């Protein structure tokens, strides 16, 4: 379904030898790379478990979701009590609270589902 996206992964920095850490492509430490047999075993286990990220990445995404949740709460408090004076600008600030909320929900759901 998303095979058309593969040629564009280089634009995002996701190339061979990189790993997603908190949803950002990061160069792998050569000590962390595994041989072909271990990679095949991990792929088979991931297919059986219906996950495609490691437990470490799931923990990082859960932490990122927690951070975004706190940031969203702080932003909503600021937008409600400091920035909103009943004008259009205040309403826009409140509407923009959806952006960090969606990131928080996305990271938390990704950590829970393993996808």
Share of residues in helices: 55-70%
Q: What is the number of helical segments per DSSP (H or I, 4+ residues)?
A: 4
Strand residues, percent: 5-15%
The biggest beta sheet reads: 2 strands, antiparallel
Task: Set out the fold topology.
Layout: E1 18-21, E2 24-27, H1 36-49, H2 55-83, H3 88-95, H4 98-113
Antiparallel strand pairs: 1-2
How does this model look, in words?
The radius of gyration is 19 Å and the shape is elongated. Strands 1-2 form a two-stranded antiparallel ribbon. Strand 1 and strand 2 form a beta hairpin. It contains four helices and two strands. The mean pLDDT is 85. Helices cover 58% and strands 7% of the residues. With 115 residues, it is mainly alpha-helical.
């Amino acid at each position: 379904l998303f095979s058309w996206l593969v040629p564009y992964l280089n634009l995002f920095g996701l190339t061979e030898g990189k790993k997603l850490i908190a949803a950002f492509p990061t160069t792998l430490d050569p000590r962390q790379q595994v041989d072909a047999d271990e990679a095949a075993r991990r792929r088979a286990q991931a297919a059986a478990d219906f996950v495609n990220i490691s437990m470490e990445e799931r923990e990082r995404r859960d932490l990122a979701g927690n951070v975004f949740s706190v940031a969203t709460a702080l932003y909503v408090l600021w937008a409600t009590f400091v920035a909103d004076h009943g004008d259009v600008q205040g309403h826009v600030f409140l509407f923009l609270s959806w952006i960090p909320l969606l990131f928080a929900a996305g990271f938390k759901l990704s950590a829970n589902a393993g996808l």
